[in-house]
Amino acid sequence: MRKIIFLFILIQLSSCKTYTKFNSNGLSQSDTIYHLDLSNRNLKTQPDLSKFTIIELNISKNRITTFDENKLPKGIQKLNFSHNRISKKVVFNEVRNLEAVNFSDNKIVSFYYTNGIIKNLNLSNNKLVSIQMPLYNDKRADTLNVANNLKLETTEINNIGFPRFYKTLINYSISTKN
Hints:
Elements: H1 2-14, E1 32-37, E2 53-58, E3 78-80, E4 87-92, E5 100-102, E6 107-113, E7 120-122, E8 130-132, E9 141-145, H2 154-159, E10 166-170
Parallel strand pairs: 1-2, 2-3, 3-5, 4-6, 5-7, 6-8, 7-9, 9-10
């Protein structure tokens, strides 16, 4: 029995690979992919998925240092870029129907989302100094998490319209007043 378990573990370990790039040749551009998991692949750069329609993309726990909106897939609604090495700023210029975005545990300094609304946004554990998003009086989002961003000031949070804009603010590093 021990030999069988050892053999099984050995087979599992031998199938573990380190990827520095993602090969998209196996994906069809005409299909809609509902969930693509590229987490824990040791990716150093963001793969170009702009020709594909992907609803949910998990690219967390890699070594990606920069974010490029132009490489995002069409139709993206849920995006997880947590636990990477993204620094400087994250910019979204296109109008998108984003429901959940997670950029937690990076080194992001600035976050810009100028043309829409993100229902659930997690920017915790970064080095945020500024956030820019439009004010929507008729639309509301659910959660904004900016916990553990020691340089983010209360005025930045007020500038994005909380509490009118977000129903819940998860924020332990700064104080907000209504």
